[in-house]
């Protein structure tokens, strides 16, 4: 009789864990590369996109992304740091 209770408890526990895992959404942010480090190129391009959304036409998103590729993600723009995004800002007439 006790093995029936233990088996049913085990099945209920497994079903609960499976339900909880399937319900929760999992996101990887910031991006990770295969070796477990940060994918700095991906972070750089995502930051360019974020700055483009923030500054609109005043921000050269394509130029920013091209510099990410050129420097292989070593220069990551920070939308709140004017020195890191200054090369990509433009004046509209």
From TrEMBL:
The keyword Signal applies. The keyword Secreted applies. Keywords: Hormone, Neuropeptide, Secreted, Signal. Belongs to the insect eclosion hormone family. Neuropeptide that triggers the performance of ecdysis behaviors at the end of a molt. It triggers adult behavior patterns: larval, pupal and adult ecdysis, and plasticization during the molt. Residues 1-28 form the signal peptide. It is found in: Secreted. It comes from Aedes albopictus. This is Eclosion hormone. Its main location: secreted. It holds the Pfam family Eclosion.
């Amino acid at each position: 009789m006790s093995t029936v209770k233990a088996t049913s408890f085990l099945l209920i526990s497994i079903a609960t864990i499976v339900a909880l895992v399937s319900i929760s959404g999992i996101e990887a942010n910031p991006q990770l590369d295969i070796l477990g480090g940060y994918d700095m190129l991906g972070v750089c391009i995502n930051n360019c996109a974020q700055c483009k959304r923030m500054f609109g036409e005043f921000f050269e998103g394509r130029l920013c992304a091209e510099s990410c590729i050129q420097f292989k993600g070593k220069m990551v723009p920070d939308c709140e740091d004017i020195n890191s995004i200054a090369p990509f800002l433009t004046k509209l007439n």
